[in-house]
Amino acid sequence: GQSVVAVSVGGDHSFAITADGAVWSWGGGGEGRLGHGNQQNRQLPKKVEAFAGRRVVAVAAGGIHSLAITADGAVWSWGEGGVGELGHGDMQGQPLPKKIETFAGRRVVAVSAGDRHSIAITADGSAWSWGDGAYGRLGHGDEQDQLLPKKIETFTGRRVVTVSAGARHSLATTADGAAW
Asked: Rounded to two decimals, what is the model's pTM?
């Protein structure tokens, strides 16, 4: 009886957001990527109770971690954190959604979760990335891992409108129609 408004598929887990702003997850539960506080696999969708009382507007399933944006523009992450892909300043995993404090005071409008890295766009059109820096996938001109979200300076003076984090690379588009 729920109307689904958005979905996202990761390495072996899936999410749906229903019209009431609830998040449902199913699939492989390893590393806590489903957000239920454990590592159990789920054959059927189960509501992520950690978001009770909050409206989720976007979700992104990565390889072994997950991201969500709530209606207030906050970003939440959970799952494996071994290279900082959760953005909490450490390499710890999180079995339940936890707010990324770097974005306090900023409104995030889009997120994408790759295999071991994450990207977000803030309301001012800035792009931020964190996690595994190998292959230059974070866009900072190096291969350093980032344990906290870091603004991608290449886009200074440009408005980023979409981002997509892949397995070992990332893409973005800017308001002028360019692909990066």
From this structure: 0.97
